[in-house]
Amino acid sequence: MVLYDEIDKSRRVTNALIIxxxxxxxxxxxxxxxxxxxxxxxxxxxQKLGVVLxxxxxxxxxxxxxxxxxxxxxxxxxxxxxxIGVQLLRATDRYQLLLQDFFANIFNLYTPxxxxxxxxxxxxxxxxxxxxxxxxxxxxxxxxxxxxxxxxLLGFLVNRNNTFELTLRFEAxxxxxxxxxxxxxLEKQKVIVTMWSEGRKKEAWLRLPNLQVLAQGN
Length: 218
Hints:
- This protein has 218 residues and is α+β, with helices and mostly antiparallel strands.
- It has eight helices and nine strands.
- The protein has a five-stranded antiparallel β-sheet with strand order 5-6-7-8-9.
- The longest helix is centred in the middle third of the chain and has 28 residues, at 126-153.
- Mean pLDDT is 79; it is low at 208-215.
């Protein structure tokens, strides 16, 4: 980025500030290329200075000693806060908002981000966790299959709506429908029982017997 105050017909500037902004990248590019690309109007005693903006202080290569200085983003914004004064009051709401966002984004870069322990735990045991999730679903399906067998033995006509829901109908009372939903089957060992009769609904929780015994068909 180049900031300048005046430019003549020959594209020469009187005073220029050449800014190289670095967040996480190192200074790998040749800064002298940028510096020499900005021509000065020497007749007006033009001056130019290069600034390398970084998150943390760095030591610049000796090649840039006479052209560039290093300033951190925090130092720059701190100085802006000190000197902005009445200029902030003259700015429109839009530009005040943009400045506030800029300040917030820069200072967020200085806030250390620590990986949540749960994320670290997942990456450490990802394979095992995936195996357990597959096993969890397998056990749940097996238990629901056992429940379906039991209610069929009681004389209910059973329709499997999806993996985790059964519809029961009893031949003697075809107008009564019973829905079994197994949302928290393994965690709470409960099933949601919803009964419909003549447009009216009755819903309740039903605690199941020992699931291990039930799944074994005992």
